[in-house]
């Protein structure tokens, strides 16, 4: 069973000397961590109770131009030597290798690690948590989800006396920026993506962002902290925003909703009664008055529903060098304080062993837009398909389709919550119905 933090058994012996921080990566985030360690050294010394020394910065290109330049003598290509001489390792290289091997090397030696590497955690988290658990080393990763926003520590620590039912996050700034432009200015997906790239939000290769994989990695990490079990990327159902059209936005706006790419992790019960967690990322309609609807541009927000706390929302910048470095430094200082002051290591996170359920078990409502023949009996036949799969219709609106190639009408139906597999069956049967020219869009609805 993976443990998510160090075991509680042994106390950490107080350190009398200063602590050496090895920085693996000196790019967008790493250079800001180096800056804070250098410029705020006196404040950090005061908070930690001992000096934090930058042991070195592992990079690929020693003389590359950087957002913030450390003493040139600090840069090295020998990451392993840095790890071996460190009290705390900060991994900000990104990618799987060599980040994975270097983190394992540190953890196996009992050295604490801080990382912002969501791709690595979502793919190999269980292996890393187990290595940390075996040696008693701390593994912290606040920066891996939603940049500067403190969300993982609140989920793991502040809510540890409560039961988290659901976490819904706008966890990818690039896609929120694109969807916001499409909604506010009527921009096409392509126009909004080009603007995101021009402004530096989207990567040159934006596939992981617009395809939903970046948000899915964050969904796996959020679920791991919220439910105390280790989840991986392959347990998240993923749908990106590339298929979202101006028509989808118009239909959403007409019904009082806005489209957001949400990373959702929630407790659920499968049809056979198994309790588990359902993890999914997809474009989602949320009511305009929902707090998540007000998250504009490239900002992130995470909405948490807990048994006793009720509804909480965490909001802020989800990316960027300095904001993400703030989250990294929060982890570094917490670890350093514990090493310096001694005392009990952080308590073991209770492991709930909540299995990941098939995403088809998710219960959600949907907006279904159909292009239909405008003839007697069509509504009855459409409604019969919903009835056959026990999916209840909450609202229905018909609009004329005067400009469509095939004359007819558009039906916009919003369903009550139903199992995803039943909604999928409804859509498959509607597609085969001859009175239905086209299932124009199916968008899931949350928050109402
Ligand atoms: P960058 O690409 O800007 O920086 C990566 C750094 O790692 C560079 O300094 C690079 O060296 C170094 N590096 C990469 N591979 C190697 C290697 N094989 N050996 C030695 N050094 C290597 O990445 P970011 O700073 O943007 O991201 C770092 C991590 O933080 C990632 O995991 C990312 O997902 C995460 N993160 C980033 C956010 C952001 O806003 N940027 C937000 C939240 C999380 P060189 O400089 O020589 O090329
Ligand atoms: N590409 C990510 C985003 C960066 O757009 O939010 C932060 O993980």
UniProtKB/TrEMBL annotation:
Task: Show the GO MF annotations.
Answer: homoserine dehydrogenase activity; NADP binding
Which Gene3D superfamilies does UniProt cross-reference here? 3.30.70.260, Dihydrodipicolinate Reductase, domain 2 (3.30.360.10), NAD(P)-binding Rossmann-like Domain (3.40.50.720)
Where on this chain does L-homoserine bind?
A: 203
- Can the keyword NADP be found in this entry's annotation? yes
Please tell me where NADPH binds in this chain. 118
Q: What is catalysed by this protein?
A: L-homoserine + NAD(+) = L-aspartate 4-semialdehyde + NADH + H(+); L-homoserine + NADP(+) = L-aspartate 4-semialdehyde + NADPH + H(+)
Q: Where is the active site?
A: 218 (proton donor)
Cite the entry's keywords alphabetically: Amino-acid biosynthesis, Methionine biosynthesis, NADP, Oxidoreductase, Sodium, Threonine biosynthesis
Instruction: Give a yes or no for keyword Oxidoreductase in this entry.
Output: yes
Q: Which PROSITE patterns match?
A: ACT (PS51671), HOMOSER_DHGENASE (PS01042)
The annotated pathway is: Amino-acid biosynthesis; L-threonine biosynthesis; L-threonine from L-aspartate: step 3/5; Amino-acid biosynthesis; L-methionine biosynthesis via de novo pathway; L-homoserine from L-aspartate: step 3/3
Q: What is this protein called?
A: Homoserine dehydrogenase
GO-annotated biological processes: methionine biosynthetic process; threonine biosynthetic process
Enzyme category, top tier: oxidoreductase
Cofactor or coenzyme needed: a metal cation
Functional summary from the UniProt entry: Catalyzes the conversion of L-aspartate-beta-semialdehyde (L-Asa) to L-homoserine (L-Hse), the third step in the biosynthesis of threonine and methionine from aspartate.
Q: Which residues bind NADP(+)?
A: 24-31
EC nos = 1.1.1.3
């Amino acid at each position: 069973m993976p443990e998510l933090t160090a075991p509680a058994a042994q106390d950490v012996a107080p350190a009398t000397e200063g602590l050496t921080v090895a920085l693996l990566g000196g790019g967008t985030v790493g250079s800001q961590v180096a800056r804070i360690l250098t410029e705020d050294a006196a404040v950090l010394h005061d908070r930690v109770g001992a000096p934090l020394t930058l042991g070195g910065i592992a990079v690929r290109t020693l003389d590359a131009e950087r957002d913030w330049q450390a003493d040139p003598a600090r840069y090295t290509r020998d990451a392993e030597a840095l790890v071996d001489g460190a009290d705390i390792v900060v991994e900000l290289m990104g990618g799987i290798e060599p980040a994975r091997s270097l983190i394992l090397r540190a953890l196996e030696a009992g050295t604490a690690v801080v990382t912002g590497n969501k791709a690595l955690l979502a793919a190999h988290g269980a292996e890393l948590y187990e290595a940390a658990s075996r040696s008693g080393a701390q593994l912290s990763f606040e920066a891996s989800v939603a940049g500067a926003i403190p969300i993982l520590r609140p989920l793991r620590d502040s809510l540890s006396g409560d039961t988290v039912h659901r976490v819904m996050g706008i966890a990818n700034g690039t896609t929120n920026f694109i969807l916001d432009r499409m909604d506010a200015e009527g921009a096409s997906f392509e126009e909004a993506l080009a603007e995101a790239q021009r402004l530096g939000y989207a990567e040159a290769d934006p596939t992981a962002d617009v395809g939903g994989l970046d948000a899915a990695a964050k969904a796996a990490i959020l679920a791991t902290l919220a439910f105390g079990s280790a989840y991986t990327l392959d347990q998240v159902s993923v749908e990106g925003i590339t298929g979202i059209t101006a028509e989808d936005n118009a239909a959403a706006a007409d019904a009082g909703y806005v489209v957001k790419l949400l990373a959702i992790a929630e407790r659920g019960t499968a049809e056979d009664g198994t309790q588990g967690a359902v993890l999914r990322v997809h474009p989602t309609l949320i009511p305009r008055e929902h707090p998540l609807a007000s998250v504009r541009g490239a900002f992130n927000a995470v909405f948490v529903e807990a048994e006793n706390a009720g509804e909480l929302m965490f909001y802020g910048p989800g990316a960027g060098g300095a904001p993400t470095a703030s989250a990294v430094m929060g982890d570094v200082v917490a670890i350093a304080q514990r090493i310096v002051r001694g005392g009990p290591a952080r308590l073991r996170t209770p492991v709930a062993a909540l299995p990941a359920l098939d995403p088809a078990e998710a219960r959600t409502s949907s907006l279904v837009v159909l292009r239909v023949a405008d003839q007697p009996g069509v509504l009855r036949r459409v409604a019969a398909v919903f009835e056959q799969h026990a999916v209840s219709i909450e609202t229905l609106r018909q609009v004329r389709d005067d400009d469509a190639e095939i004359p007819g009408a558009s039906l916009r139906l919003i369903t009550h919550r139903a199992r995803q597999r039943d909604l999928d069956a409804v859509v498959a049967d509607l597609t085969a119905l001859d009175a239905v020219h086209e299932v124009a869009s199916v968008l899931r609805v949350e928050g109402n």
